[in-house]
User: Fold this.
Amino acid sequence: MNSETDFEENVRLALANPQNQGEMTDADSVGTVGSPDCGDMLRMWLKFTEKDGQKVIDRASFQSFGCQTAIAVASMATEMLKGKTVEEAETLSSSELSAPLGDIPPMKIHCGQMVEGALKQALSQNGDTPEPAGDGPAPGNTLLGDFHASTSGKVKVVPLGDR
Ligand code: FES
Assistant:
């Protein structure tokens, strides 16, 4: 198999059993991003815990109105994040988050960047400073729920810049 075939097969396998999909009602922080390239959206929730005196990610989950690659990367990434400190998670690039899938085709790179963007936005709250009311979703909100309520301005879409 060539690397593109490997990638497609790995995405197919990830989609057959996606991990950590769905809103997290007891999350400490949440990040939502939209990709201006394709109009897709992704939200990631994080729950922190304390381990050996350090704040680490206990759980991560996601919802996506996105393509198969975004879902596959988010599934892998939310598994990868378990047990990572905030500092370790902050250094993860989109290519590291999508690495378990193999060589990501150039036209799919922004899918991984969307996952990285949601992670970085959630980490920026760090579980200490919840987003102020009216300036983004509450941690327990579903992406679909906010999508339906988007006329009230509750969806925070963060365009991904050039990286
Ligand atoms: Fe838009 Fe993958 S095509 S996130």
Notes: Residues 3-125 form a domain with the Sufe protein. Chain: A fold (CATH 3.90.1010.10). The pocket of FE2/S2 (inorganic) cluster is lined by residues 35, 38, 40, 66-67, 69-70, 111, 114 (CB under 6 Å).
